[in-house]
Amino acid sequence: MVNLEPHDGFLTRKVEPFLSNGNSAMHGYLHANKESVVVGESLLEHPAIRKADLVLIDPSTLSDSISLDNFNVNVCVISWFGLNGPYSDYEGSSEAIFALTGIMGMLGESDGQPIIPTGFHPQILGGLSAFNGALSYLLEQIKDPASAVEKPKFCIDASIFEANMCLTDLGALSSYNGEPPHKRLGINRFFPTYPLGIWPCRDGWLGVTVLSPSQWGSFCELLGLQELALNPKYGISANRLDDVEIIEPQILEALSRHSAEDLFYRGQKMRIPMARVPTMGELFDVDQYVHRKAFSTIVDGDIRYKVPSIPFRLYDTPPKFGGDVSDLGANNGLWNGLSEDTAERNLKGSMVSELPLQGMNNY
Questions:
Q1: pTM for the complete prediction?
Q2: Domain spans of the chain?
Q3: Strand ranges (DSSP E) for the chain?
Q4: Residue 363 pLDDT exceeds 50
Q5: Which fold has domain 196-277?
C-alpha cells in the first residue's frame, strides 16, 4: 500500500500520543509497512493512482480543482456523513458520532452529564465498513478478470456515521416507531441486560454479560449467591435491573473475595459470558493474548512499541505482524519519474486462489 501524502503529511502524523522522537504512535499503528510518497500538484497523474486497484480518499483533502469523477480507477470515499444526505455538509468528530448514535447518552451516572467516550472507535468502524464494501467489489472483478476491463469503475460512498449505526440498530428502530428513549441508569447499568459491565475483584477486573436464566443461575452459583438464583423474579433480566440496588452490593461483595483470573476460568467452564480485563501493566502477558499474537511490535526509527495486531486470521495470505513506519516522503525515490508499467508491477499482488465462500454448500 502506498500513502500519497501532502507536503505536511497525513493528519494522523499529528495525533497523540507521541513517541520520544516526536512521531505519532497512532500514525505508526495505522500505517506500518506502507510506503510514504509526498505528492505535488499532479495527484491524478501519479503512477500509483493511475494503476491502483483501489484508491481510498478523504474528500475533504481534495482541492477544488479535482472531482471524484476525474479518477479513472476504483475509488472508495470515506467521510463522516457521506457525500450526500441531510448531514453531508456537517463537520464530523468522534464525539459527534457518539452523540448522534445515542452511545454517549447511555454512559455515565444517572444524574448529570453523560461521559464522552475516548479513542477512535467511530473511524475504525467506518474503515472496516469501507473495507468490506470495497473488497466485495474487488472480488467480483477478480472472479472474472477478462471482463473486469469492461466493467465500469466503482465509487463507494462510505459514511462513518452510517457504519456506526450498527451499534444502536434497535435504538434507531425504536426512535422511528416513536418509542421514548431509555433513561441513563448509571455506571454498568444498561437496559434490559443485568448484570452487564466490568467490576473489580480481589485482584484484577472482570467483565460480565449475563443474558439467559441459565447463565444467571450459573453466575449466582459461581459467586455463592444461590438465594438470588432461587428468586423466580430474577429469572428475567429486566427485573434484576429493577432491583439493582439490592442485587449489586451482593455481587460486589462476592467479587471482592475472589481473583479475577480464578473467576474467569471457573466461569468459562460453566459457560458464563465473562472476560478477564487486564490492567495496562498485565496486558502483554495475558496467556491467550500471547498465544494468539494479539500484539505486535512497531518500529519507528530507533523506537519499538507494541500495538494490537490485525484481528483477522487469513491463513492463505497471513498478515505481517508488526512492521516499520516510513518517514514522510521516505519512498519518493521509488516513484519519481516511474513509468506506468513499472508502477503496475510494483502494485500488483498475488491473485486470490479462490473465492472466500468457495466449497460451501448452499442451504
A1: 0.80
A2: 2-179+294-347, 196-277
A3: 2-5, 35-38, 55-57, 75-79, 155-159, 196-200, 205-209, 274-277, 295-300, 303-308, 323-324
A4: no
A5: formyl-coa transferase, domain 3 (3.30.1540)
